[in-house]
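Sample A.
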Amino acid sequence: MIVVGGEALIDLVPVALPPGALLPRPGGGPYNTAVALGRLGAEVAFCSRVSRDGFGEGLLAGLRAAGVDCSLVQRGPEPTTLAVPSLGPDGSAAYGFYVEGTADRLFRLPGALPREARALALGTCSLVLEPGASAYEALLRREAGRGLLTLLDPNVRPALVADPTAYRARFLGWLPSVSVLKLSEADADWLGGRVADWLAAGPSAVVLTRGAQGMSVWTREGERYSVPSPAVAVADTIGAGDTVSAALLHRLAAPGGGPAGAVDWPEVLAFAARAAALTCTRTGAEPPYAAELG
């Protein structure tokens, strides 16, 4: 089982007609990753705090429809977080957020994860907004300490980071507990570090995504591989990076897989690139199903 921890929220996605209209769509980096894993056929559980409001019920329905185990989800009366993406000419998205007093940021450290858990993925807003951020951080350290494969996708949202210097220092403090660091070029530029330094701090592999230019991996053993992105007609890029995280986990957390083992990185990256490209052809975060990837 792969456990994905983090926020579930509603993206208010701009649509062409009527002018200025916003379409509510389920979202949040961890939520999208969990849905993508379920659609790929992985055994996956979502670990978060979700509102009891109408949006929250819809979010849980989307998880269950994808085959995601929701037994680790905490519930609360607080409202659901809202995100408002603004789309650039190339389909890239920037985000504004409504997060005060929302359910997902009040996440509490759960008890032991299921015995069959093999991997844990964390990232995005959930590692910024307190008090939940400290609970997710404690979960990362605890599960890494008992040997789970851990994937961190910082998926930085600068609008939510009150103190960039403190966040960058905290990010470095997570790395000894991280097996695979996955981040975008924009994340890497904002964080200001170097791949070699991140590898030295703990991860076995660093995967860097470059949008239409593809993605690369560096390993602690000194390997580097790159793959291109398939050429597609881009509707928007919402959920593409989350699909990459899911595809990586789907391969690496399979029996016999893992970043420290004999990983066929070119194949893993190519699989992730195909999955992300399909997500980009659809409005909002709509990751592909296994059958669509052949």
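Sample B, a different protein:
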Amino acid sequence: MDASHAHRHPVFCTVVPPHLLDKIARSEDTRRADAAQRTLEQDALLRTRRRVTTVRGITPALGTPVSDEPRRTVYDAQHHTRLPGKKVRGEGGEAVKDATVNRAYAGLGATYELFLKGFGRHSIDGSGLALDASVHYGQDYDNAFWDGQQMVFGDGDGDLFLDFTVSVDVIGHELTHGVTQYTANLAYHGQSGALNESMSDVFGSLIKQYSLDQTAEDADWLIGAGLLGPNVSGVALRSMKAPGTAYDDDELGKDPQPPTMDGYVDTSQDNGGVHINSGIPNHAFYLVATELGGKAWERAGQIWYDALTGGQLASDADFADFARLSVAAAVARYGNGGAEHQALQKAWSTVGVPLAG
């Protein structure tokens, strides 16, 4: 593995980007503005806490077999911010009355199943890491996050955002930050940070498609569908099919994601636009998956997984670095000049990411 992977960057990753919450915090609606401001303040506290803690690395003892079954535990934070909260459902436990708990439990399982059956990976660290999640975090908390050790879900404010367990791709998105953490460990700023976010959108979407048994043609390619409140003019947080079209709302503003490098956004906000410019590699994956057709996790997803976990992706990689590695992964697995190779070349060209150099 690349030496740069040895140091684990403490990353705090949320599914709702700060630029979106910033916009809402300036709302004339006091309730909406206050909820967004509380979320931003809590996120800032958590982000600082992550910078002064180390990432937990769990490696099973030599010779210990890794089970094909997940080890899930769901906790109820009971609207407080102390984690993990009260244990409410463990692995193999019966469904409870709280639908939020059951959705979180199912989402953890769906994520585990795709990585195991699709890519032969045992949990997010590849070694059977237990999957923990806390629900009902904070008061009207408008986000979900991976904190380096577990998943955490807010209930939303019930107005602009609904319960963050309603979208299985959001659960998969956040857990995939853990996969990235344990593999390429992409630094969370600039293009490497946008790649980090894109990996989570890609596999989050694949987890939803896998759980619904959808083909690339059937999928909606939306991240966070069902998460926006009924009065919001929008369909999701992001669209991989058409970046920049997920929402256009008086409170949320207009989706700023570009589909190609022509619209690349240079900004100091959001860690250098990690949630904005991720639209470019997102769109490349969509193009590859729909060009190849069928179940997107079988070929397109396998190529992305190989590139992410192959040990050649540096923590400071840019889009062009990943594009070249994805083409190399396609050639290594499927051969030179085949449909997969051609789909990769066409997609990266379409989004304006160079393969030469």
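Observation for Sample B: Residues 31 and 207 are 34 Å apart (CA to CA).
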